[in-house]
Amino acid sequence: MTENAANGLKRALLNEFSRRSCAQLQDMIKLIYQNEFAGGHLITDRDGALKRLQAEYGEVAPNR
């Protein structure tokens, strides 16, 4: 990883944590993965992906 890439990743992680201080380590790892590999190419069923995202959001939304 280049120094520029490392600095960009550091900024992204700090920005995410400053916006969501309740973020957990797994959230940061997911952010790193998505930063490197993106997620869109893994989605073959858009409707199913949306339903899973909504279900996941429903699990965490009450904690806000």
Question: Care to describe what's here?
Answer:
It is a single chain. This protein has 64 residues and is mostly helical. The protein is built from three helices and no strands. It has helices spanning 3-19, 25-37, 46-60. The longest helix is centred in the N-terminal third of the chain and has 17 residues, at 3-19. It is flat and about 40 Å long. The termini are far apart. The mean pLDDT is 82.
Short account of what is shown:
By secondary structure, the chain is mainly alpha-helical. The protein contains 3 helices and no strands.
What secondary-structure arrangement, pairings included, does this model have?
Elements: H1 3-19, H2 25-37, H3 46-60
Helix pairs in contact: 1-2
Supply database-style keywords.
mainly alpha; 64 residues
How many DSSP-defined strands?
A: 0
Q: Alpha-carbon distance between the termini? A: 35 Å
Q: Specify the biggest β-sheet.
A: none
Give me the Rg, rounded: 14 Å
Instruction: Give the strand content.
Output: under 5%
Order of H and E elements: HHH
Structural class: mainly alpha
Discrete helix count = 3
**Molecular shape:** flat
Q: How much helix, percentage-wise, in residues?
A: over 70%
Instruction: State the low-pLDDT regions, or none.
Output: none
Overall pLDDT: 82
